[in-house]
Amino acid sequence: AQSVTQPDIHITVSEGASLELRCNYSYGATPYLFWYVQSPGQGLQLLLKYFSGDTLVQGIKGFEAEFKRSQSSFNLRKPSVHWSDAAEYFCAVGVRHTGGGNKLTFGTGTQLKVEL
Amino acid sequence: NAGVTQTPKFRVLKTGQSMTLLCAQDMNHEYMYWYRQDPGMGLRLIHYSVGEGTTAKGEVPDGYNVSRLKKQNFLLGLESAAPSQTSVYFCASSYSGTSGETQYFGPGTRLLVL
Question: Using a CB-CB distance cutoff of 8 angstroms, which residues of chain A are in contact with residue B31?
């Protein structure tokens, strides 16, 4: 079965600093990979996804992530963090099932705090 | 275009009571999902549906039932609520397109079982 590890429960960065959130996955084949963001009391919003092709993917709000097969990682990065980026971030791996659809397995999340 | 909506937003139940959570989507998506979110555990899949009239079990299905009588609606039922079912419930829908499948999430239903 697939699994996702987000080793950092909490991260604090200063506004304007760079950010990297770590995500490691376990899955036997090439996975579908996602990063979602959740603001307090809200649902999840997709930041970016990887299905195939270029291993560096660009997302919304200036985020990017790089798929590294050799390290089973899909780390999320942003060169300059804004105060509005404070939220919880979830990495997920998707496995396509035979009947259709994608079963997502989520990591436990990383809570990002931004200091002004 | 409202996307994915969930009803109700918040509910308090007593142990043993029953209730139904409603998820509706107006994007004509084929696939729909129910997740629960608990502190420190991320989201876990309860049940899902790959089309009207079909349902399947996810990772944590015990104590829940679902129905998909119409393509746009996916209902999650709790027949006899337990305190362990206190959680935030999220519905999602998706379709399989040329750029892969993306799940779109509703705003969530916060459930407290006393």
Answer: 100-102
**Measured between alpha carbons, how far is A110 from A88 in angstroms, rounded to an integer?**
6
Put simply, whether A10 touches B (Cβ < 8 Å) is no
Alpha-carbon gap, residue B46 to B28, rounded angstroms: 22
DSSP H/E element including A89: strand A87-96
Can you tell me which residue has the tokens 């104590």?
A: B63
Query: Could you tell me which of A76, A72, A73 has the C-alpha nearest to residue A60?
Result: A76
Task: Quick: pLDDT tens for B20-62.
Answer: 999 999 999 999 999 999 988 889 999 999 999 999 999 999 9
For residue A96, give the chain B residue with the closest CA: B101
Q: Which residues pair with B82 in a beta bridge?
A: none
The 8-class DSSP code of residue A83 comes to: G
Classified as helix, coil or strand, A61 is helix
Structure tokens at A51: 């299905």
> pLDDT of A55-101, one tens digit each?
999 999 999 999 999 999 999 999 999 999 999 999 999 988 777 77
Nearest to A34 by CA among B106, B73, B37, B104: B104
